[in-house]
Fold:
Amino acid sequence: MTHDTGPVLHAKGISKFFPGTIALDEVDLRLEPGEVHALLGENGAGKSTLIKCLTGAYQRDNGTIHLDGQEVSPQSTADSQRMGIGTVYQEVNLLPNLTVAENLYLGRQPMRWGLMARRRMNAMARESLAGYGLDIDPAEPLTAYSVAIQQVVAIARAVEMSGKVLILDEPTASLDRDEVQLLFSVIRQLRDRGLAVVFITHFLDQVFEISDRATILRNGRVVGTRVLADVSQKDVVTLMLGRQLESQVHDRKPAKAGETLIEVENLGKRGMLDPLSLALREGEVVGLAGLLGSGRTETANLIFGAVPADQGRILLRGKEIPVSTPREAVKHRFALCPEDRKTEGIVGDLSVRDNIILARQASQGWMRPIPRAEVNEIAERYVKALDIRLASLDMPIRLLSGGNQQKALLARWLATNPDFLILDEPTRGIDVGAHAEIIALIEQLRSDGMALLVASSELEELVAYSTRVIVLRDRKQVRELSGAEITPENIVHAIAEHGTPAEEGAR
Amino acid sequence: MIRSTHLPLLVTLATFVLAYALCASAYPSMLSTRVVANLLTDNAFLGIAAVGMTFVILSGGIDLSIGSVIAFTGVFLAVVLRDTSMHPLVAFALVLMITTAFGAAMGALIHYLEMPPFIVTLAGMFLARGAAYVLSTESVPITHEFYDFLQGLYWKDPSGGRFRLIGGLMVLTFLVGILVAHRTRFGQNVYALGGGGQTAKLMGLPLASTTIGIYAVSGGLAGLAGIVFSLYTSAGYSLATVGVELDAIAAVVIGGTLLTGGYGFVAGTFFGILIMGLIQTYIVFDGTLSSWWTKIVIGGLLFAFIVLQKGLTWATQARRRTTTGSAAHS
Structure:
């Protein structure tokens, strides 16, 4: 480095252990003044743990942090704020019941004669925000303004209180395009003032647009720090996913030409998912690929009605059907296995049997209980068919292993005899054996004529069972791959490089 | 400028004006200063306690102990003045210290043990009531010349209303409360805590001192309310003021403060108290209605205000959606 100033913040050998896992393993991070530094990695790579160690929310187990050459050890977020490290989170961390000015100056209000000088505070706030290009009335409640403006207010507060390092933790996650641009102009302005900005996001386009350098984490380790001008998105994705992208040739049976079952036309929700269209025939598995936050889960939830769409429609066998609640979706024989089985799927303390029968019973209505004998018959049938390993049907489901819980959840939905099954990350957090079984099961359901939509971050897995793959990026459908095109390499290409002329030519 | 956060306060004010107009049209003599003066005097102890309750509820908490603390204060004063030669002013200072420390201790438990305020102050309620019983199970009369002196202090309006010391004390408490809530850092922190404890913490707010301070204020004001109550009744009785905390909560909610915290005004509580007092006065004037009608009307009012608050919350959220929408399209 030719800077005579040296780094603003230099973290060396940061390690953090949690019971049973190493969350951070000797991580280095070096922030120069006047740079926007992206922190990249898939979920669980250690990004947020690193940030929490830097801001004092967690105590690191090893390593040193130097701020402006001085060694520091922040004990709390308030502590790090005083030292000069300000953080702005995805969820706006301001108080909705206070005005803009009150939020900006909470805890450091201008005082006169022991009382708050409200008028002066409002004037100061107006002036300060004008510096960020915002001309708003700071005496209005915070919630009178859009999330983007609230983010800028949060940034203004963080900068005024800290002023050396600004950490932005997914600040754009709930913003739309114009709002992102507003935020970016603020970030550029702060960079030019000499602040070091850490930018965390899942949106690669945004990373390349705003950041100078990027540090990429995987499994708690730094796999590289790159000057972004020198690398392509593909290089970065490859580092993040850490895969040898060998071309695999798949010996796939061509999809059976079943009837078209579901057509989704321009289904979308503002700020959540750009309009998306897809069609599914019976006996088809369509994979949803994309990085975390690209809109996979959102797509699944919109089609199932778990989140009501605000545009587009769904056709079932050519007829439009309303799907604005999961109940309606279930009525039309849709089923969804959600991503987070602990919070959205299993009812931990109920028995395996009750968990399996839950959706079937719900679709019948609570007034018509399924006879005990039938319940047992169904539960036993699926336990056997899916090879769910358990001591007894009466044991609470939380005692099962992750893979068996997942299979029980699948059983729950299969028991409703769905025509259309949506699986969101069906293999997350389960062991290798169960993994293979679930993939085999997907294959089998497909050959039985069911239509499946599977969202997954495991590329090999998607390649293994999908007849078509829809690639999402930045909550937008960017590409559809089918047949021999489906390779991990092509998917990575589509995730990273969609829209470049070369890519279009390659098709 | 009128903002949606001011709406509940305006509704409370309108309710008060409307109620008073209705009462006056039925009984024109309710317009007299005599009635107004009595309204202030009769509700003085409740009003003072309700100021403390407003702070507690603004912070998102609840304080169930204040009725017991008022009773304890009364009995404590009566017993001390009967059995010792302590001057009432010294006894006042002593009991205020005790009740403030009691509130602060509850606040500390709530903060450090992360216990729900409901449980902690419920325990406080039993403790304070029990302590009052220990001092005396009988009603103890207070006869002291200083009490007579204080009770004799009033300003007589030419048309006959007597504005007594305790009514003035209540108004003063409200004025100070308003100033503290809206013009001090402590007041801002109370609102911040009610707006979101986790967020307030991330914003670097001193949560511990704020929480302890809030319950100390509530305890101290309950003590002051107890002193006023003893001046009002000239006695201390351990069975007195049962359920006053619930009246105070009702006054706060009718005054437009959101029960979940974060939104509301101390001034609103003042009108909440007046509305409740007005209903009682009306029933006295009517003479044929059972006094239980007070409870029924207050119950109805509470429901109305809760529905109003819910409606306002929805309206604000809907507005927020449309503002983000329009910003996106600009």
